[in-house]
Design brief:
Layout (H helix, E strand, L loop, with lengths): L7 E4 L15 E13 L2 E12 L5 E10 L3 E9 L2 E9 H13 L5 E2 L7 E10 L4 E11 L7 E7 L8 E8 L4 E7 L11 E5 L3 E6 L19 E9 L7 E5 L2 E6 L9 E8 L7 H14 L7 E7 L3 E3 L5 E2 L2 H12 L9 H13 L7 E8 L10 H12 L5 E6 L5 H9 L5 E4 L5 H11 L3 E11 L1 E2 L5 E6 L4 E7 L8 E7 L4 E4 L7 E2 L7 H20 L2 H17 L7 E5 L8 E4 L28 E3 L5 E3 L26 E2 L14 E3 L12 E6 L8 E6 L3 E7 L4 E7 L7 E8 L3 E6 L2 E6 L2 E5 L3 E5 L2 E6 L2 E6 L2 E10 L2 E10 L18 E2 L7 E4 L2 E4 L1 E7 L6 E7 L2 H5 L7 E2 L3
Length: 887
């Protein structure tokens, strides 16, 4: 089994000053996290980087991140001094007008991505005042594609400096069960091997990569500038020969079809090889090497043909022949003698390959046509539309055409359209040292057909993605999504019909055809449907022209805007602080290089007021002066803001780093506040984040009660927390009760797990698993997964005392959750358009006061600003609903 081409490539943040390499004396990436969750083959990744300007003057800091080509960015935010600056997805022309206006003022506001082999780059920058900090947070989503029997998550890390808080967290959940998992890549070997923790259970897997600063300089490709290499997580799920996995939620379904134990279908394959003058040198050498290796992999039951072309056509043999050892040896001799010369008559060459396949019909076989070229048509028929028409009519849907474009100079859009019109795909082959391996790797993907003429049908469903597939290959997977009519599972009947090596087969389930999943976050299946629909509409648009093309483009745009996907028809407008331009994130077409003149280089260097001394107001009229100096970093632990009660503030965020789709829509922040011991009753501050870029709301709870953090009735899950009543208003103990016989008690010194009559105490690096409960302890962090719920409890330390801070990492998709962690974002309006004094929530006017607090959901904590109001008003229900009598 060869390497898969499926990759979720996450490249580490590269923050650099304009036109210079990073200088740690100028700025410091003090925290860098990649958090990727793959749930039922849908990946959501959040890259969070926190950077501090260590200089005594403002500095422009650039955010530079690479993501997979198949991914859609869905969220981008910057956190600066308690303010949130959001990116908003807009129609591309609207964003372009914004960019043009900025350029006309002499500002470089546009951001265009460059494209590597599997990656796209997105950049933005922001000017940060002296000794201040910025947090960049990027979210993107991707439906994973199975290739050669496995999925790969490829994480390429190059932060450009060692980072003291560097973490990569990968969590995989598969209801079908995980058949195997492995970790590969340059970052998994030698000095970095012991920085990786792997955990694999029946249906879940975790990979943690936590290298120290010294380790980040110790890998083979690392240096004083830190990590530079790959971490590759490889896995697959359990398979069967039936209909596959069908997941349903909220009226949408996703069907993964990959039957096993099927007999290989003999194939008829014709290779059409460009030997024109532009293939001179390395290209033709690599093509010869790849072709010889491919011929060695043909099975005796296969039939094949070879054509080379320039201005003319050159056959190895006029007709297809069987892949006997004698014929294969003769074909390899022919391949070794291929030389470059002449022009490029693509039309004639592909039509000749089509003729050879049409002249060789074999019942029970699968035909494939593969074209390799590096240039535009220069001989014969050169009109591209005419070539497309000629080839489409000749093939007539009888077999797929795969187009391999060699190098960056090739007209890839021409090849892509030709392949898509004929049930195939186009692939770019990069002129690197491993080009022959790339060629052979592609061939291996289509080398073993198992089914042909696959038709997926879904009675009782509509708005389906593609349902007809010319061939299904070994190691691949067919994915279909749609909407279930009236959300009625009783009338929803899925079925697949295809031709195998021996017969026409029907794949169905006579009972329990679908399963309603509780492992996905709310609306995730709908987002999978939207993702797949947009991808296929973009391909369909490429094949069309005229009014049909415009109609498809309109539908693609509507879906992209609705689901906030950055696609070729949309851009993300990145809001900047006052005095700076607004940047635009684009998604390029395949093969488009970065426009270097349009990268962000000359944003205005406006100073932003961070941490300036200002009065904070008490609701009763008392005023206290903020006690932190403007010249110091606002996010350090000792830099507490003294609020209207004289108490430095803190808060807890339940999902600062969302790891599943739409988890960012349920970000709740809890913020207890420290007080002087002489104040009574003690106040604890909590915060509810808003669903836009507005400041969050906060409220106080008097005394030191037990808090209902989460209650998940259908899972018999209770999570309660005890606030510290002596020295600080933070959690000193958190208790989880799960399924009656499983109990987890967490304090600052360790974790006690009781399952039935057995009790285990975990300290240091440790793990325990009991059915669907998993508890993992690491340095200053406890990771707890209970069924479809996952939280991380962070252990902080201040003035020698340790305390707990719970962070929600996976929220169940059910609607009957209770507790502080189950709250949804607040929505409010300014009264009479004025930001201070009052807010309106559900037509109710509420008095508010602006104050500050510290976020303990991240490490190190950071300062944030919020609107303080009465607890019942912020919660929109009685506060007593969130208190419990005991843990």
């Amino acid at each position: 089994m060869g390497r898969t081409s499926v990759q979720i490539a996450l490249i580490g943040l590269m923050v650099a000053l304009a036109a210079s390499l990073p200088n740690k004396d100028d700025w410091d990436i003090y925290s860098f996290h990649i958090n990727s969750t793959v749930t039922s083959r849908y990946a959501t990744t959040v890259i969070t980087s926190r950077v501090a300007n260590r200089m005594n003057e403002s500095k422009e800091i650039q955010f530079h991140v690479r993501i997979p080509k198949n991914a859609f960015i869905s969220k981008f935010r910057m956190f600066i001094d308690g303010q949130v600056y959001d990116g908003n997805v807009k129609e591309k022309e609207q964003a372009k007008r914004q960019y043009t206006a900025a350029v006309s003022r002499g500002e470089s506001a546009g951001i265009v991505s460059s494209v590597g082999r599997t990656l796209e780059e997105f950049k933005t920058s922001v000017t940060i005042s002296a000794h201040k900090k910025v947090t960049f947070e990027l979210t993107y989503e991707e439906l994973m594609k199975r290739t050669l029997g496995k999925y790969e998550l490829q994480i390429h890390a190059r932060p450009m400096q060692p980072v003291r808080d560097f973490k990569v967290d990968v969590h995989i959940q598969e209801k079908a069960g995980i058949s195997f998992m492995d970790v590969k890549g340059g970052l998994s070997t030698n000095a970095l091997a012991n920085a990786i923790t792997q955990i694999l259970t029946d249906k879940q897997a975790w990979v943690y990569f936590y290298p120290t600063e010294d380790q980040q300089k110790a890998c083979d490709s690392c240096s004083a500038q830190g990590l530079n290499g790959d971490l590759v997580i490889v896995y697959d799920v359990n398979r069967n020969s039936t209909l596959g996995d069908i997941m349903v939620s909220k009226g949408y379904f996703v069907h993964h079809f990959a039957p096993s134990n099927l007999t290989r279908i003999p194939k008829n394959v014709v290779f059409v090889i460009d030997r024109s003058g532009s293939m001179h040198g390395r290209k033709i050498q690599q093509t010869r090497a790849a072709l010889i290796r491919i011929l060695g992999d043909l099975a005796e039951g296969d039939h094949f043909g070879l054509i080379t072309f320039d201005d003319g056509i050159y056959h190895w043999k006029q007709e297809l022949v069987q892949a006997t050892s004698e014929n294969l040896q003769s074909a390899k001799t022919f391949a070794r003698e291929i030389t470059d010369r002449g022009g490029t008559d693509i039309n004639r060459a592909v039509l000749e390959g089509t003729r050879m396949l049409n002249a060789h019909p074999r019942e029970g076989s699968a035909s494939i046509l593969i074209l390799l070229t590096d240039g535009d048509p220069t001989s014969g028929v050169t009109n591209i539309e005419q070539i497309h028409s000629n080839i489409r009519q000749a093939i007539a849907g009888k077999f797929p055409l795969y187009c391999l474009g060699f190098g960056y100079d090739v007209n890839f859009e021409f090849l892509e359209k030709m392949a898509l019109q004929n049930n195939g795909v186009a692939r770019r082959i990069y002129e690197d040292s491993d080009a022959d391996i790339q060629l052979k790797g592609f061939y291996e993907e289509v080398a073993t057909p198992l089914l042909t003429d696959v038709t997926m049908s879904y009675k009782g469903a509509s708005n389906l993605t593609e349902t007809i597939f010319s061939q299904y290959y070994n190691g691949s997977e067919i994915v279909v999504a749609g909407q279930i009519d009236d959300n009625n599972l009783d009338t929803f009947i899925p079925e697949a019909v295809a031709i195998s090596a021996t017969e026409r087969r029907t794949f169905s389930k006579t009972s329990s055809p679908v399963e309603t999943t509780d492992t996905l976050s709310e609306n995730q299946i709908q987002r999978v449907w939207a993702y797949l629909t947009v991808k296929q509409l973009l391909q369909k648009e490429l094949q069309m022209s005229g009014p049909e093309k415009e109609e498809v483009k309109k539908k693609t745009l509507e879906l992209s805007l609705k689901y906030s996907f950055v696609t070729p028809h949309t851009s993300m407008v990145v809001t900047k602080p006052p005095g700076e331009t607004t940047a635009v994130l684009h998604k390029p077409k395949e093969g488009k290089q970065a426009s270097q003149g349009r990268l962000s280089r000359v944003f205005h260097s406006s100073h932003i007021s961070y941490g300036a001394q200002r009065p904070l107001h008490h609701p009763g009229g008392r005023r206290k002066q903020a006690m932190y100096p403007a010249s110091r970093p606002t996010a350090q632990l000792e830099d507490y803001v003294v609020d209207m009660l004289g108490s430095p503030g803190g808060f807890l965020r339940t999902s600062h780093q969302p790891v599943v789709p739409l988890l960012q829509d349920v970000q709740i922040l809890l913020r207890p506040t420290f007080e002087a011991a002489t104040l009574a009753p003690r106040l604890h501050r909590f915060l509810i984040e808003t669903n836009n870029s507005a400041l969050p709301l906060c409220f106080d709870i008097a005394g030191h009660p037990f808090i209902k953090l989460l209650h998940h009735p259908s899972r018999e899950l209770f999570v309660n927390g005890e606030l510290n009543s002596v020295t600080s208003a933070v959690f000193k103990k958190i208790v989880i009760h799960f399924e009656a016989d499983k109990h987890v008690e967490v304090d600052a010194k360790g974790v006690t797990v009781r399952v039935g009559e057995n009790t285990t105490r975990l300290t240091g690096q440790d793990m325990i698993t009991a059915d669907s409960l998993t508890v993992i302890t690491r340095s200053k962090e406890i990771d707890i997964a209970a069924g479809d719920t996952r939280m991380v409890i962070i252990v902080h330390e201040m003035a020698g005392e340790e305390f707990l801070w719970p962070v929600m990492r996976q929220k169940p998709s059910v609607t009957d959750l209770e507790g502080i962690l189950a709250l949804k974002p607040a929505g409010y309006e300014d009264v009479d358009g004025f930001p201070n004094g009052k807010k309106k929530i559900k037509d109710q006017e509420i008095a508010v006061t602006r104050t500050s607090t510290v976020d303990y959901s991240i490490s190190p904590p950071e300062m944030i600003v919020c609107w303080l109001m009465a607890a019942d008003s912020a919660l929109q229900r009685p506060l007593n609903d969130f208190l419990v009598a005991q843990l």
